[in-house]
Amino acid sequence: MHTKVDGSRRYSRARIAGLIALSLTLSTICAAATALRGDRSGEEVVAEVCGACHTTGVNGAPRIGDQAAWARRASQGLTVLTGHAITGIRNMPAHGGSPTVSDVEITRAITYMVNASGGHWIEPLPAGTKAARRTGEQIYKMQCSKCHETGVNGAPRPGDHAAWIPRLHNGADAAVASAVHGHGAMPARGGLADLSDEEIRDTMFYMFNYGASSK
Ligand code: HEC
Ligand code: HEC
User: Fold this and answer.
1) pLDDT confidence of 53, banded at 50, 70, 90?
2) 46 lies in a domain?
């Protein structure tokens, strides 16, 4: 009985290790150009930097755990909050006052604080531990829906085949590459710096197939 449990655990550890190795390879390719310096988890960044004010609510900083305070902030969406935290807003200093905190780390720290305050956001994982690839649906709801749901600036809407088919005309790879680099009102990687090409592909197909019957 015990042996069996241990055995299957080892097996799944090996699989996870395989997935980590695979995603390491993928993220090395993807991150080669970005070369992220700071790659701490949201929890670490909050402990080292943001917590100085956000733990107790210095100067009116939304306190970690204060659901009402964070729900109001969170309604602006991760992209807007990240922008405010990077440039600073009112008594909130740019980069939380620590220029070494990378943009991705800020995204993670915000997600961490939102979730520690009753939110349900998905924390972007540190590069190399992306074993749990996020689903297209999760990514869509977290980020892409901001424009694609209502078709802001001509963003193709989920399930709108007439809008999607011409964009997939040159194949899925070309459409993914286009979304990776961004153009016009479509931000690079949909505005989520840590999104892998595979996740973009999954999300694109989620949008393309949205509402389609199985036949
Ligand atoms: C020196 C104190 C201080 C530190 C350190 C600090 N913050 Fe803040 N933060 C504030 C204050 C004050 C506000 C409220 C600003 C306002 O809305 O008037 C705030 C607000 C915010 C908001 C809400 C912005 C909005 O648009 O409503 C976010 C997000 C945020 N901080 C993220 C962070 C992150 C991430 C870090 C760490 C990297 C951090 N903060 C570190 C003081 C701080
Ligand atoms: C700020 C608004 C915005 C956000 C956020 C956004 N998109 Fe887009 N997206 C657009 C617009 C606008 C277009 C149409 C661009 C055009 O055709 O000129 C587009 C087009 C696309 C296309 C078609 C290929 C291309 O580049 O034209 C894909 C694929 C795509 N988006 C994927 C995503 C994914 C995946 C996300 C979330 C991770 C996302 N988008 C988030 C605005 C957005």
Assistant:
1) very high
2) yes
